[in-house]
Design goal:
Layout (H helix, E strand, L loop, with lengths): L44 H9 L6 E9 L5 E9 L4 E2 L6 E2 L4 H14 L9 H4 L13 H5 L17 H6 L7 H6 L13 E2 L3 H15 L3 H13 L21 E3 L5 E3 L15 E2 L1 H12 L6 H4 L11 E2 L12 E5 L2 E10 L2 E7 L6 E8 L9 H11 L7 H6 L25
Parallel strand pairs: 5-9
Antiparallel strand pairs: 1-2, 1-13, 2-3, 4-8, 6-7, 10-11, 11-12, 12-13
Amino acid sequence: MISTRLSRRSFVGFALSGTAALAATAVLPAHRAAALPASFPPLDPIALQAAIDDLEHPPSTAAQLQVGGTAGYWRGASGVADIRTRRPVTAHDKVRIGSITKVFVATVVLQLVAEARVALDAPVRCVLPGVLPDRFAAVTVAHLLNHTSGLPDHVGIPDPKTAEDVFRHRFDHWTPQEWVATATHGPLKFAPGTRQEYRGINYALAALIIEKVTGRSYGEAVAARILRPLGLAHTVVPGNDPHIHGRHVHGYLAMADGSLRDITAYDQSSSRGEGDMVSTTGDLDRMLTALFTGELLPPELLQLMFTLPPNDVRMLDGSPARYSTGLQQATVNGVTLWGKTGETYGYKNAAFSTRDQQRRFVLTSHPTTARNGEESHMIARVADLLTRNPSAEGPAAQARRAPGRQDTGHTAPSSTWEASPRQSG
């Protein structure tokens, strides 16, 4: 089997076997000191529209942005959903959301924890007998959810280098067992819980845990527990269907001859459980709102989604850990945001909010680069606009931000919004 991934770069009681509910900090320790509550200025519609109208940085065919929260609402769109018909993008157009899928999967797993149907400290091998080798016995469910498992790199999957390579393998299909098996060769990369590495395989396994515990497909579990209760009518788990049905934004890749080729139809089996879902900006905004306000999880388990590993647990490059249970943290202009990025070819997305939901945004864009690192530039500039307080800046800072000048000194670097190689972002 061949992957189509392109390599680049970036509880109503805890069901913890043998431990008390409040001992959960032994698995996922208390998170670092939070940033002070932000005071947000009024939204700047002209600047926001300009940010998504810039479809050259990165080269893109479309973008749409929905801003919500108590500090103001705005939505806008740019570009076309289909370059053949030139149909404009609308709020009801579906997109592939990539690794925002992980938020849904983590939420369902935590719901099962709340129901005492699975334990966070349960070894994965005990929940999924025969899936992982004996030498991975120390990997627990909690390690999967916050990317501290240490599972090995994939072996035996190709590494496409060009858009042409991607198209040659767009319909390659993997069973879940085949895909997991490619990440079971060799020893663990580090002792579970001691480092953090963002890995899609963690959530491929989490989806299998949902299926084992519930007796239904992970997609059916997500639909029953989240999509239908919240009325997310435009959100689907596609399963083995490579197509997006109904109104949607097409994704494209730039070929070597400069032409754009439609990459919308794409086998998502290697992203199953970690990056295969389809949704809309409105549905993702509703999901964030419901999650952050406690509609989906009891408070003790919801807090785990805003809990980073301790300070001594670092990313492999030495930077601070930035992934919690199902979410990622980004601090921009001193404002702490929680949410998730998501990408697959032709699609780059971000869904983030402050913890108090003063400011919340969902951005979907459609870069045509084959995941070369440029795709996060639009997210970075939108996040900057939504967290910047001009009244708190001195004249020098405002001058640096004048039209025609670019200053990223106060923004999260583009790498903050990127995934690791071979992951949906």
